[in-house]
Amino acid sequence: MPLLVPATLIVLVFLAAPLLILLRYSFNRFVPGQFMVEAFTLENYAKFFTDPYYFAVLRTTLLMSVGVTLACIVLAFPLAQVIARASPRSKPMLIILVIVPLFIGNAVRAAGWMVAFGQKGLVNTALAGLGIQPVTLMYTPAAVFFGIISVNLPYVVLTLQSVLEGIDAHLGEASQSLGAGRFETWRLVTLPLAMPGLIAAAVLSFILTMNAYATPLLLGGPQFQMMAPVVATTILSQNNWPFGASIAFILMVVTLCLTAAMNLIVARRYGR
Amino acid sequence: MRRDDPFSRKPMSLGAVRDGAIRACRNAIEMMTSHALTLALQRLAHGAMVAAALLVILLPVVLIVWLSFFTNEVLALPPEGYSLRWYQALAGQPQFLAGFRLSAIVAVAATMISLLVTIPAALVMARMEGRGREILTNILMSPLIVPAIVVGSGLYIAFVEFEIATDIQLNGATLGLIAGHALITLPWSLRLLLANLGGLNPALNEAALSLGATPLVAALKVTLPVIWPGLVAAALFCFVVSFSNVELSLFLVAPGQTTLPIALLQYLQWKIDPLIAAVSTLQILIVAGALLVTNRFVSLAKVV
Question: Does B79 map to a domain?
Answer without folding.
Answer: no
